């Protein structure tokens, strides 16, 4: 996942650089010569002059020399019978061992690296074509889509259209002018630091990887309170057998769960590790490890050394993954540079048909650092290839018109995405402070134990009580806890027994603020009350705890609407008692209570998948394009959102009214 080439600017500067930094930069990778030490002058044997005398008989001079020395003349030197091509190839196991041995020379090792992604015009064009295809697909009618010879039923059709709508939304966002500009320019996706001695692991990662000036080492980790002071925007993780459980992560910030403890890294974060020379599944999932480490740690029987070759004078061994049919990896090993795989290609093969497609992905070292008699890949580049979009589109049009030649070649593959990996700091034989591996949390900080999924407070052995969950449909609606009603009277849900009740929770109305976000709630409730007030539906609005009642009265008066309004009681600072029971502490929400006193609908209790399905169906019913055009006029988007949510809530109220 690498880039560019390091080029020395002159012999004197290169020499000075090597002295100061303690390592040699080997310029280039697969297509470049290694920086070998100066070779001694070759000793060439004197060439024999062609014989002028007749062949087969010794001359008198020859006989005299033989007689005088008593030795027979030396026979001509025979050429080696085994050529380089027929020399014995090393085993896969030997190559893997050499690769691992190379990395042990650096341990313990610290590496800070930067990963960037750059998309090409070919990738952008491919996505534009896909977006158009998806938009055309939405014009299909139920029953017109056939899968495996069978038309989709109504439910399958709706589900398919929902997924298509989500893809359209994603493509629309990624193809905006600003997004395309950033994709073509390239963006930093990770900028971590990883340290290991082969037994333990410590890593750091900025929450803002594009900020290259941000240091990952703002200060000491002790005392633990330094984490809250210095590491609020830096993620830390340490795996050590001395920890229980072995993994500790710090995310910073002020939200609950600043820390997390777990067994493996991928229980906390996802990260692409640098080449480290080994794989420890105790640390993290295989997908986090570098491709080369996975390749060199896999079962040797999965691979075969197929040949010895030369690339620009450099000896290479070619290894193939043993695959009968499917994707196959081929790798070029450099035995003179720590058995590093200087290049890796992925193709599709069919052994029976003797077919090997052009490679569709490759991974290549562009620069190698030589240090401590070992070799480390300083720059790596990965390319993902895609069919040329314009040629592919032309062939589709010709196919539709019936003019595509039967023997037309597949569209050529071109680069779609480049992922670059560059080591910006390389620290072999680097010791680490014990506090970095212990990673003690500040006293009182909240952390989650991924083993039991409970929240703890540092210093306490017992977990905190489980976090409240939004009340679910069919559960009995709990009593409201209201500090004050707008009319000064007291009431509760029992006062409306046998009626459908709609609760609208709104944000806190402060002493001086004119919270415009409540305008939408008022307009929304006025519309609903106009539709359902005559049917006996009760609407109650609950403002956030510690709201100013006079501000609430002024707010309603200015908008010309009266309703039953209460201010939520307070159980802890700025948290409403009613909102905590119904919404798990959220400050706004919408709940429908049926005639039987049970919750019929709670927007906060919806799973994301269910909510998206409801929004999609409402948009289809209202003939509103879905997903909404986020680049459209803001007023239009707001209006469409209100229409969709009003439709959803109206449907829920109608269903509640239909129940006894």
UniProtKB/TrEMBL annotation:
InterPro entries the record matches: Thioredoxin-like_sf (IPR036249)
Comp. bias regions, Basic residues: 74-87
Polar residues composition bias: residue spans: 52-61
Keywords for this protein: Signal
Gene3D superfamilies: Glutaredoxin (3.40.30.10)
Record region (Disordered): 35-88
Signal peptide span: 1-34
UniProt keyword annotation of Signal present: yes
Protein name in the entry: Thioredoxin domain-containing protein
Organism in which the protein naturally occurs: Symmachiella macrocystis
């Amino acid at each position: 996942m690498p880039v560019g080439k390091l080029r020395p600017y002159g012999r004197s500067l290169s020499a000075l650089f090597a002295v100061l930094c303690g390592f040699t930069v080997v310029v280039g990778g697969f297509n470049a010569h290694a920086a070998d030490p100066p070779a001694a002058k070759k000793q060439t044997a004197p060439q024999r002059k062609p014989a002028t005398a007749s062949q087969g008989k010794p001359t008198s001079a020859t006989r005299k020399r033989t007689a005088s020395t008593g030795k027979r003349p030396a026979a001509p030197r025979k050429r080696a019978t085994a050529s380089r091509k027929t020399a014995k190839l090393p085993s896969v196991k030997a190559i893997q061992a050499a690769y691992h041995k190379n990395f042990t020379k650096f341990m313990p090792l610290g590496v800070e690296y930067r990963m960037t992604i750059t998309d090409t015009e070919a990738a952008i064009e491919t996505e534009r074509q896909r977006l158009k295809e998806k938009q055309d697909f939405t014009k299909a009618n139920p029953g017109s889509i056939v899968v495996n010879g069978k038309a989709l039923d109504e439910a399958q059709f709706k589900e398919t259209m929902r997924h298509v709508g989500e893809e359209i939304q994603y493509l629309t966002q990624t193809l905006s002018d600003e997004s395309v500009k950033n994709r073509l320019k390239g963006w930093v996706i990770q900028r971590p630091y990883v340290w290991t001695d082969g037994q333990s692991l410590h890593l750091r990662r900025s929450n803002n990887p594009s900020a290259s000036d941000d240091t990952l080492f703002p200060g000491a980790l002790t005392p633990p309170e330094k984490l809250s002071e210095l590491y609020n925007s830096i993620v830390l993780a340490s795996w050590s057998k001395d920890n229980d459980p072995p993994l500790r992560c710090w995310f910073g910030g002020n939200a609950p769960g600043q820390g997390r403890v777990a067994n493996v890294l991928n229980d906390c974060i996802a990260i692409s590790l640098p080449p480290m020379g080994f794989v420890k599944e105790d640390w993290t999932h295989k997908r986090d490890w570098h491709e080369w480490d996975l390749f060199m740690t896999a079962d040797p029987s999965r691979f075969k050394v197929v040949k010895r070759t030369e690339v620009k004078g450099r000896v290479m061994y070619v290894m193939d993954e043993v695959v009968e049919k499917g994707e196959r990896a081929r790798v070029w090993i450099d035995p003179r540079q720590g058995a590093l795989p200087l290049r890796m290609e992925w193709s599709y093969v069919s052994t029976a048909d003797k077919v090997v497609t052009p490679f569709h992905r490759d991974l290549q070292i562009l620069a190698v650092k030589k240090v401590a008699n070992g070799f480390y890949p300083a720059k790596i580049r990965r390319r993902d290839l895609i069919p040329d979009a314009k040629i592919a589109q032309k062939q589709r049009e010709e196919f539709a018109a019936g003019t595509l030649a039967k023997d037309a070649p597949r569209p050529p593959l071109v680069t779609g995405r480049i992922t670059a990996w560059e080591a910006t700091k390389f620290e072999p034989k680097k010791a680490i402070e014990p506090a970095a591996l212990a990673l003690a949390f500040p006293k009182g900080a909240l952390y989650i134990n991924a083993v039991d999924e409970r929240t703890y407070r540092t210093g306490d052995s017992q977990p905190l009580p489980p976090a409240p969950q939004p009340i679910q449909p069919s559960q009995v609606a709990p009593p409201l806890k209201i500090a004050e009603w707008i009319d000064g009277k007291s009431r509760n849900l029992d006062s409306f027994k046998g009626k459908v009740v709609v609760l609208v929770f709104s944000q806190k109305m402060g002493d001086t603020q004119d919270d415009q976000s409540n305008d939408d709630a008022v307009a929304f409730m006025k519309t609903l009350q106009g539709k359902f007030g005559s049917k006996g539906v009760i609407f109650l609005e609950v403002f956030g705890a510690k709201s100013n009642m006079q501000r609430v009265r002024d707010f309603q008066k200015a908008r010309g609407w009266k309703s039953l309004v209460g201010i939520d009681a307070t159980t802890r600072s700025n948290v409403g008692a009613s909102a905590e029971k119904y919404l798990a502490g959220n400050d706004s929400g919408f709940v429908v209570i049926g005639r039987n006193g049970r919750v019929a609908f709670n927007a906060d209790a919806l799973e994301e998948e269910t909510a998206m399905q409801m929004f999609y169906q409402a948009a289809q019913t209202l003939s509103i394009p879905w997903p909404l055009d986020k680049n459209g006029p803001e007023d239009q988007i707001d209006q469409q959102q209100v229409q969709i949510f009003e439709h959803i809530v109206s449907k829920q109220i109608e269903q509640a009214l239909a129940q006894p």
